[in-house]
Every structure is written in structure tokens, then in C-alpha cells.
Amino acid sequence: MCVKLQTLKDISNYLAKELKEVYHDQEISAFADILTYTITGFEKLHIPEGNNFPLSVENARKIVSVCNELKKGKPIQYIIGEILFYNCKIKVNNDTFIPRPETEELVDLIIKENSGFKGKIIDAGTGSGCISIALAKHLPDALITGIDISEGAIIIAKENAKLNNVKVRFVNTDLLNCNAEKTGKADIIVSNPPYVRESEKQFMNKNVLDFEPHSALFVSDDNPLVFYHAILELADKLLSPGGRIYFEINEAMGIPLLRMIESYRYSGVMIIKDINGKDRIVKATKDV
Q: How far apart are CA 159 and CA 14, in angstroms?
């Protein structure tokens, strides 16, 4: 089987044939792009020899192995152990939620609105550390602290900071019962907390439900804004007057969250749509 995989152009054909009963064409194409980058270190369009770039026997075997895992529904990011997030290489495992493109949009907004920022940032619920690390890379004068309840996530976040040669302080603490002394003051608080309601599980892909940590994804239908409430309580003590909060949100919860934030003395509260036109980000400024 590996003999058929001799060049990069063979990857797409092989995956299309092997995975056509399990995945859509667009997903298979994305898998091929990810494997191309992982093997060569080049984006698909920038490979020196184009699609005729040769594959070693070892890499051909790796592709076959990855394909077999994909057939079981395992996310490709967990199979290869990493993902490219906002030009940062981020390791992931079963202790961490897989970063999504929507979160890159959140990071991009913060970077564009805070050019030259030199203050303190808290990333509440840091997971793999992807937000903290991308911000540290593009806002190098910022002092960034990432907090998470998962010891496993903190371990991988520290590895990711080292991998990307940035300095981030990570703290293992419960966001719902966080001691303000552990985090220190902040000028920006950003969070992509669990926000998928339990009732929405029925609409989610099996590979997400079977492999990604539920504690990083789901909240009770009875209290879906529990983490946002906890962060706002924390921000009441830690966020400087004039400081900003940025949240990634469940598209169905924008208005209730907006009203909650306004009750905490914030102004300029705004819901921002993602590239797919869904309510995805809420930002606000703490009143002076």
C-alpha cells in the first residue's frame, strides 16, 4: 500500500479513496493539506517541487497509519499531535480542546485593536495555551497569564510556550473558584470558555463527542453562562478601569451575555459576527 504513496500528489488521491465513505470531500482535502504541512513544513502552495515532492517510505507509512486512525473518527489534530494556530505550532492531546478558526478571529481582533500593548492580559480557561501564545508572539511587550483547571492542559500549554519561544505565565486554578491573588491585575481579560449547552450535543459530530474533553466544551442548559459570570466576577476585582474584555461565545447566547455584561458597569458592549455570519465574539470596556 505504501508503494502507491510516492509523492505528495498521491496523498490526496489515497485519502480520497480510503475515506470517501466516512468524510466529505472538503474534509478529506483539509486532511491532505494538514499532512502535507506536517511532513514537509511547507504550506501546500509553497512546496519547492510542487505536488511531485517525493515521500520517503517512512512518511508513506505514517500517512497510512493516520488514515487508519481517521477511519475510526479520531480528530487528525490528536493523531498528529499538533495544529497550526495563528502561525503558531500548538501541541494538542486529549487534555486540550482543539483550537478552532473562530478563536483565531478572536485573537486577530485583540491584536488589531491593541497594537503596541504593554499591559497585562489574563487568558481565562487557556487550554492548550493557543490564545496566550499567539498574543505573546504578536504583542511581545504584554505580560500574559493563562489559567486553567486542568493540570494536563497546563503542562501542554507550558510546552507550547517553549515551542514557540514566548514567555507566558500559566496558573493551575479553578475558574469558578479562582483566588484573585493567583492571577494578579489585568488590563485585558480574554476567554473562550465552555459554552456548548448539553442539549446541543445531538447536533455535534461524533469525533468531537468521542475524543475532545467534555469539561472544555459543555455547560448545563440551566446555567449556560456560568463561566462568563465567574469571569465577570473576577474582572470586577482584577480588571483595570478602562480595561477590556473579549469573549468567544455561543451564537445563541449573545443577547443574554450582553445584558449580563452591561449589569457589571461596562460600556461599548458589542457582539461581533465571525466569518460565517454567526454571533461569535463579545467585547466591552470597563467603565472608568
A: 33
254-282 residues labelled b (16+ CB within 10 A) or e (exposed): beebbebbeebebeebebeebeeeebbbb
CA–CA separation, 97 vs 214, rounded Å? 9
Sign of the dihedral through C-alpha 278, 142, 173, 82: positive
Angle, vertex CA 239, rays to CA 238 and CA 240, nearest 5: 115
Q: How far is CA 162 from CA 2, 91, 129, 143, in A?
A: 35, 11, 11, 16
Comma-separated ranges of CATH 3.40.50.150 domains in the chain: 95-286
> pLDDT, tens digit, for every residue of 129-164?
999 999 999 999 999 999 999 999 999 999 999 999
Count CB neighbours of 191 within 10 A. 25
Q: How much is the pTM?
A: 0.90
Q: How far apart are CA 96 and CA 98, in angstroms?
A: 6
Residue 146 pairs in a beta bridge with 123, 170
Express as a percent the part of the chain with pLDDT over 70: 95
Helix axes 25-40, 9-19, angle to 10 degrees: 140
Q: At what angle do helices 130-138 and 151-163 cross, to 10 degrees?
A: 30
Torsion over CA: 107, 112, 113, 115 (sign): positive
Please report, to the nearest 10 degrees, the dihedral formed by the alpha carbons of residues 127, 264, 113, 92 taken in order: 10
For residue 41, the one-letter residue type is G
Burial class (CB in 10 A: 0-12, 13-18, 19+), 223: exposed
Residue whose C-alpha is closest to residue 144's, from 119, 110, 121, 172: 121
Amino acid occupying residue 74:
K
Q: What is the mean pLDDT of residues 204-229?
A: 87
Instruction: Return the CATH fold of 95-286.
Output: Rossmann fold (3.40.50)
Q: Return the CA Rg of the chain.
A: 20
